[in-house]
Amino acid sequence: MVTRRRVLGTGLAATGVGLTGGSLLPVLHAAAQPAERPAAGPAAAAVPRFATAMPRVPVLKPDSTMGGVDLYTVTMRTASKEILPGLRTELRTFNGQFPGPTIKARRGRPVVVRQINSLDVDTSVHLHGGELPPEYDGAPMDTLAPGGRRLCVYPNTQAHASLWYHDHAHHLESENVYRGLHGSYLLTDEAEEALPLPKGEYDVVIGIRDAHFDTGTGQLVYQMGDRARNTLLVNGAPYPYFQVAARSYRLRLANHSNMRFVELRLADDGDMVQIGSDGGLLERPHTTKSVHLSSGERVDVVIDFSRYPVGTQIVLKNTGYGPVEEIGEVLRFDVVRTASDASSVPSVLRTLPRLPAPTAERAIVLRMDEDGRPDPQGYMDEKVYDPGRVDARVRFGASEIWTVTNANKLVPHNFHMHLVQFRVLERNGAAPGPAEQGLKDTVVLMPGDTVRLQATFDRYQGEYVYHCHMLDHSAMGMMATMKIV
Q: How many helices (H) and strands (E) does the chain have?
């Protein structure tokens, strides 16, 4: 049974529900509340609902494909875009696009990205979920100064996955991502392509995030822990509609918000079939009424629109956090035509290798100040991030069990590891639900939660970070360094 509670503390706000039977139930936005809440922007309820078409994010074309390597140029620069009707918003973008262009890659075929920073702030581009050498990981202190250029190599040796890329420059990552520095990176392989899943125009990226716009000007308001980010954007557009055919679609749902958690379900409570999570396809699909995404998580679902007559309009709702009049709706699917459909969802999608015997165990504790102080800090094992300190030494080739605990009483967190995809073993002493039984790189922890996960460190040696992926929290210091030797 789902129980809801609302806690409004002095200087903090946290709202949440429990986890039952190891399965994720709705998890809600929580943040350190600044001493002065920013002036409210235009009410999200006043933004026209379903008045514009959902943008299909452009796929970036390579500059060159010579030698079996795809070369891209990505320039970080300011751009303005009409997001709210009649107003232009200044953004920090990749190639002037919001969100950034989608990069499509293939296992075994390297990608080289020529990065150019034409902004007036430092950047560091991280391929979230990617298995990369440390020099190309986009570490928090490995920044590219304004005017700088460099080449970044993505070997693409891992299996298929719906990844994403975003800024990671420490103390700037929260604002840089919020102002637009994020995009999708879709890695495929032969095993995925051989399945009869929806493909081509029926395989769609849906990136969801929130925003707070200034009254009258349309500019993004940024303040750490802002609870007024109550306009939802889908692929950069507020509350759009998406015209679909009466057939099955693969929807790659991604939460690109800094801190907001969402629970997504169809307004008629219709079925969705979850086929994937952060690290690619699940072993077996499972049918569900809703999916839950904390900041940075991705879920792939298949929805069969053939069950609706042409002319049907069905809303995708967010039932994980209020106020309902502002963010209770996400987008609307409009069934506008019939179409042939040879796709299907197999009963077995992939086989994951058996986990090796663990070679070590360690415990990690996440906590942040929740006593109302004006400048709260985040802690990993009671330490604020120090780029000069190594917090965990991991033997190369080791397979470790990490027991991660959220020590807060009010504030939820999530936990992201660079370099590795991991497997969730237990949630609060119980087996994980079907949504968490695939490969993951980000996992949610409600107040008091403990999650046990296992990761194998056999790809690269060097230093990588692990942190809360509620980016306002990591910018507050909730991050640490592991060194694989």
A: 4, 34
